[in-house]
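Give me the 3D structure for Transcriptional regulator.
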Amino acid sequence: MNEASPLNRYQLAELGALLAEPARAAILLALMDGTMRPAGELADVAGVSAATASAHLKRLLEGGLLGLHEQGRHRYYRLANDDVAAWLEAMALPHATLTTSKTAPRDAALCRARTCYRHLAGQLGVALCEAWLQRGWLHAETDGLQLLPVAADALVRAGCEQAPAHQMLHLRGRGCLDWTERRLHLGGPLGVAITSVMLESGWLRRAQRNRALLPTPDGLRRLAELGIRIDP
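Predicted structure for Transcriptional regulator (232 residues):
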């Protein structure tokens, strides 16, 4: 699931088989918000028995799509890494391509802003990436996208804590193809850190029923100060 070890046809076929089962697909989608969840909760999400969920989780672990965190007697499942999340996000692109502009979105809030694993996606994520590239706040390097000091200073002026904002200068981001917008949003460790800061600052809040992120009125105002604007 990375550039260093490209997929061969047999691995690609195995990944396709993993996604072909609706219960396994439901488990993967439930973990796209970056959370870690126990098997029982994932069984409920997938609508299957505990034994069936256990078999599906075993296959997803063996297929490299899930990671496991053990804490005492408890076991929590998560997506294996950012590469898996980006791949799942991109898998939805054929569906988005078939959607015309006249078709109402199934979930407007999810299209407007959501988490792609742990970073900001949707209209807001794309607007951030494009605005900051245009302003020169993001610089493309061989190992990814770098946040420049002028951007960290602007985040502090907009209300972010100084330490987290400047710690992001040492992180790298990458372009992640957005399945609803079909343009790039900012992923990687830098994208995760920026999203975390916006949540902690109260600019965004998590929806309860899915992975949508809801901009607050104060958040929209502060985001506009940073050149990030989306239609109301």
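The chain has two domains: 9-80, 88-225. Let me know if you want a second pass.
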